[in-house]
């Protein structure tokens, strides 16, 4: 039996027309070993660097003990926090979204051409492993407001598979003044879509989905409005 690697995945949500809401799905390049060609939520493996001293010093609004408790006491406090940090890092690496805030707690505005280009170059450097996420946070004096990422679900790849992940799913709202990349090194396409609309594509060859993505979509589709979803998951963080 292959040991499952710890991973974090994030469902980014935003309000949509008619009081509804949409989620962000990304398509993995067909050549990728794991789920190549499938539509998934942004995410990936939790690395030791995600709970290094340097990175955790840039974390706010969630203690290690709180994170450990939320994850069912399955991890040491620092490692538990690393699951949240991995969401911040992976979301930035894959689609260029930064859930971080400034030292004063303000949101980041990435709409200006100069700052947008600067941050994008650093994102590319992180993907190429020329820059680590902690050093990026230090250089830009940014903080991970961990409470903006809400724990949602837990899935473990069945034992019959040769590549397995022990994955924690989270929810996060789209940051103001930011637009996700349409594609990147790990994404061939990204799409905003309502959960029910995505589920309707389950058997469409051009929109390949598999569990647990479909299960998460089904759980989210039960919320018939942005208000209901927001009140359930984000009332304490907005």
CATH fold label: Nucleoside Triphosphate Pyrophosphohydrolase
Q: Radius of gyration over alpha carbons?
A: 17 Å
- The CA-CA distance between the termini, in Å, is 42 Å
Q: Looking at the chains present, what oligomeric state does this protein adopt? A: single chain
Report the biggest beta sheet as strand number plus sense, adding barrel if it closes.
Answer: 7 strands, mixed
Mean pLDDT: 94
Shape: globular
Number of domains: 1
Level-2 CATH architecture:
Alpha-Beta Complex
N to C succession of SSEs:
EEEEHEHHEHHEEEEHHH
CATH class: Alpha Beta
Question: Uncertain runs with pLDDT below 50, 5 residues or more?
Answer: none
- How helix-rich are the residues, as a percent range? 25-40%
**DSSP summary, beta strand count:** 10
Strand content: 15-25%
């Amino acid at each position: 039996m292959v040991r499952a690697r710890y991973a974090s995945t994030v469902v980014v949500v935003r309000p949509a027309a008619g009081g509804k809401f949409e989620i962000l799905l990304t398509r993995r390049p067909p050549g990728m070993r794991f789920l190549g060609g499938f539509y998934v939520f942004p995410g990936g493996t939790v690395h030791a660097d995600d709970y290094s001293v340097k990175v955790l010093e840039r974390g706010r609004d969630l203690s290690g003990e709180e994170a450990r408790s939320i994850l069912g006491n399955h991890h040491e406090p620092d490692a538990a926090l690393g699951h949240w940090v991995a969401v911040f890092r992976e979301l930035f690496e894959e689609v260029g979204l930064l859930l971080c805030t400034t030292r004063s707690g303000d949101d980041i505005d990435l709409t200006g051409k100069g700052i947008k280009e600067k941050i994008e170059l650093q994102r590319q450097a992180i993907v190429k492993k020329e820059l680590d996420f902690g050093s990026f946070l230090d250089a830009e004096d940014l903080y991970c407001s961990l409470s903006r990422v809400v724990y949602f679900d837990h899935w473990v790849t069945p034992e019959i598979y040769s590549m397995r992940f022990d994955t924690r799913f989270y929810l996060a709202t789209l940051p103001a003044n930011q637009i996700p990349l349409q594609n990147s090194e790990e994404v061939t396409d990204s799409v905003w879509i309502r959960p029910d609309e995505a589920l309707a594509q389950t058997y469409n060859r051009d929109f390949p989905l598999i569990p647990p993505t479909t299960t998460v979509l089904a759980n989210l589709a039960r919320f018939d409005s942005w208000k209901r979803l927001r009140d359930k998951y984000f009332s304490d963080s907005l």
